UniProtKB/TrEMBL annotation:
Gene Ontology cellular component list: mitochondrion
Species per Swiss-Prot/TrEMBL record: Papio anubis
Subunit structure: Interacts with STYXL1.
Name of protein: Inactive hydroxysteroid dehydrogenase-like protein 1
Record localization: Mitochondrion
CDD domains: 17beta-HSD1_like_SDR_c
The keyword NADP is annotated on this UniProt entry: yes
Keyword Mitochondrion: yes
InterPro entries cross-referenced by the UniProt entry: 17-beta-HSD3-like, NAD(P)-bd_dom_sf, SDR_fam
Pfam family, one: adh_short
Membership in a protein family: Belongs to the short-chain dehydrogenases/reductases (SDR) family. 17-beta-HSD 3 subfamily.
C-alpha cells in the first residue's frame, strides 16, 4: 500500500503534473492550492451548464474506489460534464495516476486526498482541514469493504468485521458530517451514497455487508427528508452486480453484460438520475431486479441468494487454489 493513515491534499492541473503543498498533518500534508471552486446545484439542468464545480468521491477500501470500479467511472462521467474533481482513497500512487488522467482527458481541475478509512476516527480531522473553505457541490460516498467472497459470518475475521463497521458505516456517515454544513450554508448541494442491491432483504453469506448497506440506504433516505427543504438533494444509489474487480474476469457475471454492466456504462446511466430520483438502482436492468426483489417473498430471496453466493464462493476458491 502506497499510503498511510492521515490525509494528503494534492493539486493536479489539466495540463500539468501534480504537486503536494500545505502543512504536515497526520503523516501527510493538508491544504489545497488552486482556483476558486464553484458548487453544483443538484439538478439535471445544472449538469448541462458547463460551470466549474466539485465532486468529492471516497474510496471503496480493498477492492475498488476513487481509483477503480464504480468510483472512478462516476468521477470520469461527471468530469466529462465539466466538473472539477477531488478524489479520496488510500493509495497515493493510484490517486496521482487517475487524477492526472482525468485532468488531461477532460480538461478539468483535480485534487487528491490520501486517507485510509479503516484507520478509524483520527483521519477525519486532517480531512476536515484539507477541505476547509472548499465549496463541495457533490459528495459521492463510494466507500465500502466487501467480503473476499460470500461466506458464513463466523468465517469472517474480526479485523474484517471492524473494517466493515469503520468503512461501510462510519466513513460514509462522517464524510457527510464533514461536508453537509457547508452545503446547508450555501443552500445547495448533492450527496450520493452508493448502497447495494443486497440491502433489499436479509442476504445470507453476506450478512454483515448487506446489513451495512441497508444502513446506508436508510441513512440516505432519512437525510433527504431532513434536508430537502434546505436545498440539499440526497440520493440512495442501489446497484446490483457491476463488472468490477469484485467479480473475477472469468465469472459468469461478466458474460451477462445487459444484466451486469461495466462501471463506465453503469456510471453514465446513474449520473442521469442525479437530482431526479431520490432512491434508484441507477440502471434499467437493475431496476427490474429491484422490482422483483421488493415484491418476492423473503424465503425466495434467501433461496436465490444462497444458490448465487455458493456458486460465487466456489468460483472464487477455485481461482485461488
Amino acid at each position: 500500500d502506497a499510503s498511510a493513515p492521515g490525509a494528503c491534499a494534492s493539486h493536479v492541473r489539466a495540463r500539468s503534473g501534480s504537486s503536494c503543498g500545505g502543512r504536515d498533518v497526520g503523516g501527510g500534508r493538508a491544504g489545497l492550492a488552486g482556483p476558486v471552486w464553484k458548487t453544483l446545484p443538484p439538478c439535471r439542468l445544472a449538469l448541462r451548464e458547463g460551470h466549474s464545480r466539485i465532486l468529492l468521491t471516497t474510496q471503496n477500501w480493498q477492492t475498488e474506489g476513487a481509483t477503480d470500479g464504480i468510483g472512478k467511472a462516476y468521477a470520469e462521467e461527471l468530469a466529462s460534464r465539466g466538473l472539477n474533481i477531488i478524489l479520496i482513497s488510500r493509495n497515493e500512487e493510484k490517486l496521482q495516476v487517475v487524477a492526472k488522467d482525468i485532468a488531461d482527458t477532460y480538461k478539468v481541475e483535480t485534487d487528491i486526498i490520501v486517507a485510509d478509512f479503516s484507520s478509524g476516527r483520527e483521519i477525519y480531522l486532517p480531512i476536515r482541514e484539507a477541505l476547509k473553505d472548499r465549496d463541495i457541490g457533490i459528495l459521492v460516498n463510494n466507500v465500502g469493504v466487501f467480503y473476499p467472497y460470500p461466506q458464513y459470518f463466523t468465517q469472517l475475521s474480526e479485523d474484517k468485521l471492524w473494517d466493515i463497521i469503520n468503512v461501510n458505516i462510519a466513513a460514509a456517515s462522517l464524510m457527510v458530517h464533514v461536508v453537509l454544513p457547508g452545503m446547508v450554508e450555501r443552500k445547495k448541494g448533492a450527496i450520493v451514497t452508493i448502497s447495494s442491491g443486497s440491502c433489499c432483504k436479509p442476504t445470507p453469506q453476506l450478512a454483515a455487508f448487506s446489513a451495512s448497506k441497508a444502513y446506508l440506504d436508510h441513512f440516505s433516505r432519512a437525510l433527504q427528508y431532513e434536508y430537502a427543504s434546505k436545498g440539499i438533494f440526497v440520493q440512495s444509489l442501489i446497484p446490483f452486480y457491476v463488472a468490477t474487480s469484485m467479480t473475477a474476469p472469468s465469472s459468469f457475471l461478466h458474460r451477462c453484460s445487459w444484466l451486469v454492466p461495466s462501471p463506465k456504462v453503469y456510471a453514465h446511466h446513474a449520473v442521469s438520475t442525479l437530482g431526479i430520483s431520490k432512491r434508484t438502482t441507477g440502471y434499467w436492468s437493475h431496476s427490474i431486479q429491484f422490482l422483483f426483489a421488493q415484491y418476492m417473498p423473503e424465503w425466495l430471496w434467501v433461496w436465490g441468494a444462497n444458490i448465487l453466493n455458493r456458486s460465487l464462493r466456489k468460483e472464487a476458491l477455485s481461482c485461488t487454489a
